[in-house]
Amino acid sequence: MPKLNMVSAINQALDQEMSRNGRMLVLGEDVGREGGVFRVTDGLQAKYGPARVVDTPLAESAIVGVSLGLAAGGMLPVAEIQFEGFLYVAMDQLLNQLARYRTRSQGRFDLGVVVRVPWGGGIHAPEMHSDSPETVLVHTPGLTVVEPSNPFDAKGLMLSALRLGEPVVFCEPKRIYRAVKMDVPEEDYTVPIGKAKTVAEGTDLTIVAWGAMVREAMNSRKELESLGYSAEVIDLRTLSPMDSPAVIESVRKTGRLIITHEAPRTLGLGAEIAARVAEEALTSLLAPIERVTGFDTFMPLGLLEEHYLPNAGRITAAAKKALGVERIAA
Amino acid sequence: MNSRYFGRFDPSRGEKLQILDHEGKLKEELRPDLPDERVVRLYERMTVMRVADQTALTLQREGRLGTYAPFYGQEACQASSAFLGPLDWLVPTYRETGALFMRGVPLSLLYRYWMGDERGMSMPETSRILPVEIVVGAHPLHAVGLSWALKLKGEKAAAAAYFGDGASSQGDVHEAMNFAGVLKTPTVFVCENNQYAISLPRKEQTASETIAQRAAGYGFPGLLIDGNDLFAVAGSMLEALEACRNGGGPFLIEMLTYRYGPHTSSDDPTKYRTAEEVEAQKPFDPLLRLRRYLESKGMWTDADEAAALEAGRLEAERAITAAEAMSPPAPMDMFRYTKKTVPPYLEQQKAELAEFLESGVGHA
Questions:
Q1: Considering CB atoms only, which of A74, A103, A244 is closest to B149?
Q2: B363 interfacial to chain A (CB closer than 8 Å)
Q3: Which has the closest alpha carbon to B227: B255, B251, B253?
Q4: Out of A113, B65, B170, B337, which could bridge B59 as a Cys pair, Cβ 3.0 to 4.6 Å?
């Protein structure tokens, strides 16, 4: 089985679906000749031509708004917003327009639009190139938000997103675009949207993560293991609709919950996950819920990035606190 | 392109297409394919449209309708939707109640929308109409995408995006025109310049002499027309749409008109303009000049006028009756269209409301 990184896995999903679906278009800034600044759409224009893989003017709001119109006209647009920091420019089109269109048209328009966005920090990119603004997307009814943590899921989730027939924001953790290669089947397969995955089972505590943070959670799990604790790691995979039952079920078993994400803590998804667990499984909790997140500051420039982003060490420290052992192993 | 209008009148030099002047005199040499029989029918519909519009304001004052955005004075612009072909798309804003009416949307449905009922947003399935836009400059982008799709599918059709002079300042309108110019989409940008964006006069909206001349900067034709002249409206729309169907486009038409009424029923226009200013615009009324024209042709009489007004009154009345006879929307309807696949937690919220309603606690 070929080993692919996340860039190649997403590229393969786009390529395969495009060859199957004549209605599919890829559009965005530099997605054609250049193959995207991260090369996710590399080779697609050469294969499908400039009419289907379209280098657009530099205008994010237009990329999303025009995609809405294309979908209303029966096409399947896959739009790229070059960095999540530029997504703010397109927020009216994304939140007010695209997300709301099914409601605004009384169900007439199911708009299959996939908006791909390189996401999050960790690559020493310039200012406004490293944010994680998923909260505002998840807060908006009508949007599906996905963020894979590995190449296999990336391909399967992309194929699901392309076939969903509803607007999807596909967050691509740029930090792990090329971090790992793994077996990615050449053939068609999907990973279901709305389903979290337990990537490692455990009994003492639950760590919830997604995107690049899954790797940190897994590293923390190893550290905890060496201390004699067994952590269950859940990869959320879909941020909206969120698979909170999977988290709640795990907390019922372990009694402790650590949530980690790159976004600032206040109203980050950790807040919603904590609230749902409190609503459904409060009596199962043996310790307060811990959130290991970005700070309520702006994402700093590259030199301080590593201190902003949560890492395995911080997750382990929080886990020890939840386990009541923070003084022992320090 | 064999053009009679676009390119013949240069908006940057203040040239404006007018075919029927306000006294009802027609420049025959500029006349589009608009036979007098059709003018009579359109005039009748525009009369009904005006009555329906005034009725909506009255209903609002009586508390039977929510906030309403009238189009009094803009009837010729609104009638432009009558020139869209069956495969063309109308991409309207909330001001386009008249354009929707001309495109065949039932008046009762339009009233229902303004009563605050989301079911009024359900355009007939086969109608080529996008939802009424509220964010004034957002939808031209949708029209560009939609018309691009038409082009890709090889349909001989266009999408017409309606917006106002205020929206012309919106970034999305710029982005839409720029995209359309680059992608050469069959899009007709219809700017109804009614000279006010709520209170802001056109001259403070942009330092550009006209909005139409901006098209040149995007690399496609723009035309300034007298928006109170149905013949100029017809000519410019037919020419742009025909060109779009044959691989041309985009186009920008600035229809210069005047909003006689308030921005919406909540607005007080005396704060920003004088009654004299409004009165000075009345001689340029789009219906008045059509009536004069038809009378001069011997095709319209006082009796016809009375009959058309009465027909309008009856049609509006029937529409109100039908709209008010509709049962109120069910509270659970708000969950209906959010997502195609309803996630479990939304099902739970829905169940919460249902349970609360059943308990009867919420009833006065």
A1: A74
A2: no
A3: B255
A4: B65
pLDDT in tens, A17-31: 999 999 999 999 999
> Cβ separation of A57 and B178 shorter than 8 Å?
yes
Tokens for B5, please give them: 């209008």
pLDDT tens-digit readout, B63-111: 999 999 999 999 999 999 999 999 999 999 999 999 999 999 999 999 9
Measure B119 CA to nearest chain A CA, in Å: 7
Give me the residue from B142, B147, B337 closest to A102, CB to CB.
Answer: B337
Residue B78: φ, ψ to 5°: -60, -35
Nearest to B312 by CA among B51, B46, B73: B51
Q: Is the ipTM of this complex over 0.85?
A: yes
Chain A residues touching B146 at Cβ < 8 A: 69-70, 72-73
Given CB atoms, is B180 within the 8 Å cutoff of chain A?
no
- Give the pLDDT confidence of B228-270 residue by residue, as tens digits: 999 999 999 999 999 999 999 999 999 999 999 999 999 999 9
Distance from CA of A285 to the nearest CA of B (A): 21
Residues of A in contact with B345 (CB under 8 A): 241-242, 244, 276
Count of positions (residues) in chain B: 364
The closest alpha carbon to A249, from A302, A208, A217, A221, belongs to A208
Of A54, A71, A104, Cβ closest to residue B131:
A104
- Of A124, A129, A261, A307, the active-site residue reads A129
Kindly tell me if the per-residue pLDDT of A329 is higher than 60. no
Residue A287 has pLDDT above 70, yes or no: yes
Pairwise CB contact (< 8 Å): A69 & B179: no
The mean predicted confidence, pLDDT, of chain B is 96
Reported as a single tens digit per residue, the pLDDT across A173-205 is 999 999 999 999 999 999 999 999 999 999 999
Q: Scanning every residue of chain B, which has its alpha carbon at the shortest distance from the alpha carbon of A67? A: B145
Three-state secondary structure of chain A: CCEECHHHHHHHHHHHHHHHCCCEEEEECCCCCCCCCCCCCCCHHHHHCCCCEEECCCCHHHHHHHHHHHHHCCCEEEEECCCHHHHHHHHHHHHHHHCCHHHHCCCCCCCCCEEEEEECCCCCCCCCCCCCCHHHHHCCCCCEEECCCCHHHHHHHHHHHHHHCCCEEEEEEHHHCCCCCEECCCCCCCCCCCCCEEEECCCCEEEEECCCHHHHHHHHHHHHHHCCCCEEEEECCEEECCCHHHHHHHHHHHCCEEEEEEEECCCCHHHHHHHHHHHHHHHHCCCCCEEEEECCCCCCCHHHHHHHCCCHHHHHHHHHHHHCCHHHHC
Mutate to test the interface with B, among A18, A52, A66 (most CBs of B within 10 A): A66
Token pair in block for residue B306: 């009375």
Q: How far apart are CA B69 and CA B78, in angstroms?
A: 13
Report the pLDDT value the prediction gives residue A32, as an integer from 0 to 100: 98
Note the pLDDT of residue B258: 98
pTM confidence score: 0.97
- Residue among B213, B166, B163 nearest B188 (CA): B163
How does the average pLDDT of chain A come out, rounded? Answer: 97
- Cis peptide bond N-terminal to A264, omega within 30: no
Query: Does A129 qualify as catalytic in the annotation?
Result: yes
B224/A contact by beta carbon, under 8 A: no
Q: Does B72 touch chain A (CB under 8 A)?
A: no
